[in-house]
Specification:
This is 4Fe-4S Wbl-type domain-containing protein. By secondary structure, the protein is mainly alpha-helical. Helices cover 55% and strands 0% of the residues. The longest helix has 19 residues.
């Protein structure tokens, strides 16, 4: 069992603050928003290029115009980067207007899945 260190207090407080903002103003949290829209039943598998493109467009459309899109991306990358590093987590659903594989690519490309989270803040 590996021991992981918790996020730095200032980062944890920032993420809580951003999450509160998303909860108050995000399109996905407004009254009447259907959570199933952000977690489609089937994600395209393999290299189904057309299916993946359609999914990416649907993801962008779901979050288009959201006033907390940037905050959501920051929280998402911090959360998923930590989970990926600790547990081999694979992203799913739509977050910050991005499909899961798009977020995974961002995490891997930026090195967020293995760096000190405090440096990213």
């Amino acid at each position: 069992m590996t021991c992981t260190k918790p996020p730095a207090p200032n980062l944890a407080a920032r993420l809580r603050s951003l999450t509160d903002l998303i909860d108050e103003s995000g399109l996905c949290t407004t009254t009447g928003a259907n959570p199933d829209h952000w977690f489609p039943d089937v994600e395209p598998a393999g290299n189904a290029t057309t299916q993946r493109r359609f999914y990416e467009q649907a993801a962008a459309a779901r979050c288009f115009g959201c006033p907390t899109l940037n905050e959501c991306l920051e929280v998402t990358l911090a959360e998923e980067g930590s989970l990926l590093l600790e547990h081999g987590y694979e992203p799913h659903g739509i977050r910050a207007g991005l499909a899961p594989w798009m977020r995974l690519h961002l995490l891997v490309a930026s090195g967020s899945a293995g760096t000190d989270a405090e440096e990213a803040a």
